[in-house]
């Protein structure tokens, strides 16, 4: 099954004094940096749980290829509640799920890849003797986490549940840098500016113009899951009319139908993927992953000694 990820970004950033998810790190925001790293690591479904400033953040990330879920009661709940919203959504869609708060944006893609290789119920990254994020959770324990009613939030659940644990010891200080206060954010920026160059691949297919990329792939996956173009568009923060316009454009360039339209009736209508649409989606995801893996090998071969 797939690897998923939950990013909690519902909080009010009260200690920071400004909205953390949209703080800039170089040319991109904190939230965009986390998403890009996860995507580069091969994570296929990324859920961002929003709350405070939800509309603004969702518009900011609308083209990032992620799924948005909201914690409508963010003012009266904890981060654990936001985490559970994302975990509940992904528990039957992914075999393993990465979790991180939005204010820890500088972990590396190779750290994620090392975590994914482990098979315990929960895997923690460790640097300089300290535990950081993201952590990796097996889908086997998600129901146990969701049922946990003790103290300590997610950390308390993982400490008290009878589950297997493993640790990945790495030289990636990015797993430890958060942005809770202005002083911590300054240290985070200093670390960012000292980091190594890494390859980042954004893959698209084109004929006369671009017609298929990771955002289109996610739209098709959500249509296949929900049987609704409207719901799929809502989860990606795109308009219903733009969703249909995009689908029609792709079908024109691909030369075949991607979706089956079923008119409403006594049992209601719905939309599903055609066999050709499912095949295109499956092959694109495999192609995307193969290109990413090849890019790392080629970077190491040709550029790693030049861009140290």
Give me the strand/helix succession. EEEHEHEHEHEEEHHEHEEHHHEEH
Separation of termini?
A: 35 Å
Structural class, please? alpha/beta
Provide the CATH architecture of the largest domain.
Answer: Alpha-Beta Complex
- What global shape is seen? globular
List keywords for this structure.
308 residues; alpha/beta; Spore Coat Polysaccharide Biosynthesis Protein SpsA, Chain A; Arc Repressor Mutant, subunit A; 2 domains; 8-stranded mixed sheet; two-stranded antiparallel sheet; 11 helices; 42% helix; 20% strand; globular
List the helices and strands and how they pair.
Blueprint: E1 2-9, E2 24-25, E3 28-29, H1 30-40, E4 45-50, H2 54-60, E5 67-70, H3 79-90, E6 94-101, H4 109-116, E7 122-127, E8 130-131, E9 135-138, H5 142-147, H6 153-160, E10 165-169, H7 182-193, E11 204-206, E12 210-213, H8 214-226, H9 229-236, H10 240-254, E13 259-262, E14 270-273, H11 275-302
Parallel strand pairs: 1-4, 1-6, 4-5, 7-10
Antiparallel strand pairs: 2-3, 6-9, 7-8, 7-9, 11-12, 13-14
Helix pairs in contact: 8-9, 8-11
